[in-house]
Sequence to fold (243 residues):
Amino acid sequence: MVRRLEPDNQSFGRHCMPTSILRAKGLVKRVPTAEGELTILGGIDLDVDAGGQVAVVGESGSGKTTLLGVLAGLDLPTVGDVWLDGAEITALGEEQRAKVRARSVGFVFQTFQLIDSLTALENVMLPLELRGDRQAKEDAREFLDRVGLSARTTHYPRQLSGGEQQRVAIARAFASGPKVLFADEPTGNLDTHTGARIADLIFDLNREAGTTLVLVTHDAALATRCGRTVTLEAGRVVGNSPS
Fold:
């Protein structure tokens, strides 16, 4: 059973702002290595309001991508708790976490993460079909049109440029109506001009949909477009302030 936040929850809910859609408390992530245990996240607390835009920045190896994966329920922390859209996802099994992600989360990755054997249209349709959307094809076409790819619906990823592949990924992320969008270096594999256009697209669609955005980036200019910046250093939060 999915455990949900309640206003009178003695351990957490009574301290939670009613607009919070994402909260992490005491996150620690350790992994074994040949040299011994490595701490990637060293105790992170984070609270994100619905509709907020948060940039997570820091040097390479600071724990940004690991934090995003834990917040999204793709990975579990060694210690700590995460609540996402009312569900305590750290108390759930993988199947239940997947249901929460399907219901509430969209992803945009640096490496696009498209399925090579599917067309652009089919890539966008896939998560819609998995959740039982009877208008998956129509909805997918609409979002491909919104990202400027109405003429590329039958093309496979290998037939698309990097910028076009990322636009397919953005259409796929927003088509399912996510409450929270996790974006991991969404412009990292693109040239400056294309990256700027992709960033504009993400922020435009995010604003239209009222989606909560958690953006991992090394791009300071991109981070300043978010309302808030969280800075990580060696797995710890060393800055948390308006951009």
About this structure: The CA atoms of residues 209 and 236 lie 31 Å apart.
